[in-house]
User: Which sequence fits this backbone?
């Protein structure tokens, strides 16, 4: 059974820059937005530490935040929740595939983006393999 981390938070309306900063951090972690200000990540050492730091940061920015650990009892199944993460990460992988199919590819930039995306691919999307193969193919064509 997967353990999940939830982060709930509330930020002052103004100024908007702290809210945007928190939103960007949540997106960069690959967290899924469940409801209003409820965000979800699978529990591991990395995600636990990141949500812990973000909880402190939100409070430092004048907001309120609480981190929770849970196991779903009713509602969405583990498979359905993990599918939310896969669908979200697939958008990023599709964008990389599009870049790799284009002309004048900056392979270093694409590789860095791939590494960032792979780090938050918590449920091993099948598209990851396609992107990796495409990067390898592009590298071999450069030689």
Assistant:
């Amino acid at each position: 059974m997967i353990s999940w981390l939830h982060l709930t938070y509330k930020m002052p309306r103004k100024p908007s820059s702290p809210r945007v900063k928190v939103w960007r951090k949540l997106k960069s972690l690959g967290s899924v937005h469940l409801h209003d200000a409820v965000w979800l990540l699978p529990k591991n050492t990395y995600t636990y530490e990141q949500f812990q730091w973000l909880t402190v940061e939100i409070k430092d920015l004048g907001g309120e935040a609480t981190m929770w650990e849970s196991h779903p009892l009713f509602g969405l199944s583990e498979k359905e929740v993990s599918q939310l993460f896969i669908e979200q990460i697939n958008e990023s992988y599709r964008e990389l595939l599009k870049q790799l199919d284009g002309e004048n590819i900056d392979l270093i930039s694409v590789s860095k983006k791939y590494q960032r995306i792979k780090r938050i691919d918590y449920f091993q999307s099948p598209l990851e393999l396609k992107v990796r193969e495409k990067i390898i193919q592009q590298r071999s064509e450069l030689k």
